[in-house]
Write a structure and sequence with these properties.
382 residues; 38% strand; globular
Length: 382
Amino acid sequence: MKWTLLLPLCVIGAPAMAQTPAWTPIKPGMCDSRWAPSAVLLPDGLSALIAGGFSYDAGSCLATADVFDKTTNSFHRTKGNLTYPRDFAAASVLPDGMVLIIGGYNTSLGSLATGEVFDPKTEMFRLLPSRMSKPRELFTATTLADGRILCAGGFDTHSRRTLATADLYDPKTQTFSQVPGLMREDRFGQAAALLKDGRVLIAGGKHWFVGKPDKPSATAEIFDPATNTFRRTKSPMAFARDRATATLLADGTVLIAGGQNGESGPREAEIYDPVTDEFHTAPKPLGTPRMAHSTETLPDGRLLLIGGWSPPIHATTGAAEVFDPATDAFTPISSVPDSSHDQALIVFPDGAALAAGGKWVEGGKESSLATAFLLKLPSNNP
């Protein structure tokens, strides 16, 4: 399913930009333009898989995939293709080094329940016989401490609504099983993070039944793998947030950043404390309101946020910023040259960040991107 992003807002009091290196273009870029691909850092720490996505050039979802090799700063097409072209799918590295790609949207088939496994050694994809209990796109896939993967919520084009069901993928048996209980709310476009104690925080998203108004959510819930149950957090977030990001910090709290709230995008970030089971507003705001952006953790513990749809300009943004947990502050850095939302963002062990693809929107025009850029920020570690 394709999503239209509409938001009007204005920005005041944005912090000054830090003097940081510029993003370096990778030329040539990816083999195909990709909006909402599945992307993961591969186990060798030197390469990344960027698979599927939607291409405006092809007019459909893609079955092709790129591998980025950091030793040569170049892309190459994988030897095999996905069995099902898909965008808005989830990708997770399995304990044996394989990559699981599940769900998503297919141009002809709608939401998918299938999963595929990518072998980095052969660069081939293999379709799994087992399927999720429901087709899902824009859901969350969270790897648990025991290696299983929680696939929660999402949107199903076949039932024409958001889902409250969840599945667990077991890499030992290579099968999906439905979680017996339901989530506390049906939601898609939510954010999720694995807590240090092994539970999963699921926050925000949106409720939608086709033909009825959608409703962004401020609620959050906790999944406990010990009991296979969901429960609400003690408090909701201060803001409803669709397409925000949730990132675990070193102290065990979780930063919730960005997202869409009706006709606006909150600059205020929130922090979830698993000890109190409550959210509080972060002391300092985002430099750029954004949703459908990307957030990854740098080796020194700071967070890198890039791109997304930004309300003040009613278009995609290339703005990038770093959140420092030591100061609770967001600091703008050099912008990604091509603005986009739903791009791939990979952070390598040496701190280099790769931004690739996404969807560009400006002045009523839109396109999928094949461009890619690298950035190496100085570390905060002594």
